Amino acid sequence: MNFLIGAFLIVGILFMCTFMFIGIWSFIVHIKNYRQIRYQNYILEKMHQKLSSISDNISNCDDTNNDYAYLTGEEDILDINDHENRDNKVTDFKHMKENNDSNLS
Questions:
Q1: Which of 52, 58, 75, 94 is in Cβ range 3.0-4.6 Å of 69 for a Cys bridge?
Q2: In angstroms, how far apart are the furthest CA atoms of the chain?
């Protein structure tokens, strides 16, 4: 009878130690996973904020200064409406060149 009680106590102690070991390590792994997920969420939130601010800046940007027109399909519209400004810039450049040539002589 004493042998059965001793064997039962030893098996019980082994099971307690095993479950305690498993419990401690599962808690440690859970904490590491939680911190990693928190870090990933932080990085994703920062990326979301940056992308939102970029998209807000693009949508609030003036149409004449739209560097991303090729992404939205507005490139052709800007080219059609902006032909007069381009002609003025070309003629201004011609006058500047003539003035510089006359200053050099």
A1: 75
A2: 124
Instruction: List the pLDDT tens digit at each of the 105 positions of the chain.
Output: 888 899 999 999 999 999 999 999 999 999 999 999 999 999 999 999 988 888 877 766 555 555 665 566 555 554 555 555 555 555 555 555 566 656 555
Number of residues that make up the chain:
105
User: Mapping DSSP to helix (H, G, I), strand (E, B) and coil, where does residue 68 land?
Assistant: coil
Report yes or no: 58 and 68 within 8 Å, Cβ to Cβ: yes
The domain locations on the chain are 1-60, 68-105
Long-range contacts of 20-24 (CB under 8 A, 24+ apart): none
